Amino acid sequence: MAGSTIKHYRLKLALYKIKHSPTTMAGVAIVAIFVFLALFGEYIAPYPEDAYSIHIERKFLPPSLDHLFGTDAVGRDIFSRVILATRVSLGIGVGVVILSVLIGFPLGLLVGYIGGIWEAIVMRLTDIFLSIPSVVLAMAIAAMVQPTLENAMFALVIGWWPWYARLGFGLASTLKNEDYVLAAKSFGAGWGHIVFREILPNAIPILAVKASLDVGYAILAEALLGFIGFGVRPPTPEWGTMLSEARIYLPNIWWYATFPGLAIFLAVMGFNLLGDGLRDILDVREIS
Amino acid sequence: MSILEVKNLTVYFKTFAGLSKVVENISFTLGKGESLALVGESGSGKTTVLKTVLGVLPSNAMVKGKLLFRGINLLETGNEELSKIRGTEITYIPQEPLAALNPLYTIEDHFLDRLILSGKSKTGILSYIRLRRKISPKLKNIMLKYLEKVKIPDPERVLKSYPMQLSGGMLQRILIALAIVSNPSILLADEPTTALDVVTQKEIIELLKELQRDLGLSILYVTHDLGVARTIADKVIVMYAGHMVEEGKTSKVLANPLHPYTKGLVDSIPKLVGGTLHGIEGGLIDYINPPKGCRFHPRCPKARDICRRERPKPVEINGRKVYCWLYGEE
Question: Is residue B104 within 8 angstroms of chain A, CB to CB?
């Protein structure tokens, strides 16, 4: 059937675009590696028990074949801990973005389409949230509650969803003037049909690009929370927290801070490259 | 028997600069199986009239007057009833066929949505998901039947295609098929042939005429093209700056225009043989501060004092109506 060939065509086109864009390939590869590490970290890390156990006699060993990234102040293998931290850091990054999208985006689309008093209420609410720097807001919230993984995530989501509400609002207020929306309206479509069937699918490419870029920033913000002590508490392995522990030993014990820092850098860069690549791949109008 | 009756329709828009008085005192009737063309230059309010009938005006519009569909005033009844009439009984063919179809859905998806919205198929999320995965033979037959009605070649393939894979003429046929799938009694056409080349334009007009005859459709056709109006419409209403200036049988109005504006329009049609073009001096009016009296007087070669003071009353001449002070005094 013609329909299935078109779907295959889209897939092939996406693969073609990825192949011919080295940066996108790099992004996909980096993200794939991190996702793999997040899923199977225990089986890859040479010393999986080092997430929590202490071997004081092995402290501050420089990088060697036994300990690729060296060991930390209490003798834990940094290589293993960086790998084990992937799940927490990536989980928070992706989780924050997904939750923010789920809360903010449909809300923004709806009020962007409906307009009127609801638009005023929701958009002024987002203005209030956006007028406070999101990291400061997250710090304030994280400081009030227990420093756990979930709370760090919620603290970030509260500062993050208004961006998606704004994005959805902007997209809906332009897309609602498209002729196909008018045509759907003329056929008696209600707001539910128009928002979720006509507007939302056309807004998804832009949402996907922003969301994938934001995963990187969310990882960064979460590392920052960890660094200043409002994020995940030690000894749970997490890149930001590890950096914060390592800070006082710089510059002599250089490997302690370098490798978690590199991990953050690579993850942020990977999601950024992926986001840039998605921009080209998701351009639906190019198939035909 | 009239199926749509518009009485004293007035549409204003509240804008930042002031009240924009776009359409004033439009009245006409559309009989069953009849076709009526609204003619005028761009910006003369003809599309606004059509959008009012369709009920898709922006929220800053103020509408007065009556819009009777089989005796029901569309401007008054509750929302529920309206959305049923509009979309099933009154449907619409847009101007830009490619822009009017969501680029992400196949023609089959568009049909499915349309059938569900017009109540021809079961609604509800579960049955919807099932239908999207595999369409029932009954619905498929309806789709194929209507695609054949608008003379689409290879309808099976077309159903699986995305809008940008089809030509403008094909898409316009599909939009017509989408419009008639609910067995409407009135079809509103907003310059459906403007974006097409001349040959395709002729085919689409032939198709519309055929459907009008076979299905007993009434067509309200908006166009700036007098040639198109001549081929498709029984009756024509000439609009200038939101006012009616002339109304009557198309052949008579175009052969022997009474109003100076209609004369100017007819004279502005480019002819293949010789001569310079005769246009109409000046441009469209400012709707916020429209000229007093007849809205055409600043551009009218025959304007007199009374034209600047008072709005002309309709004068009946041989079954036609003309809104001009040149007539009726005698």
Answer: yes
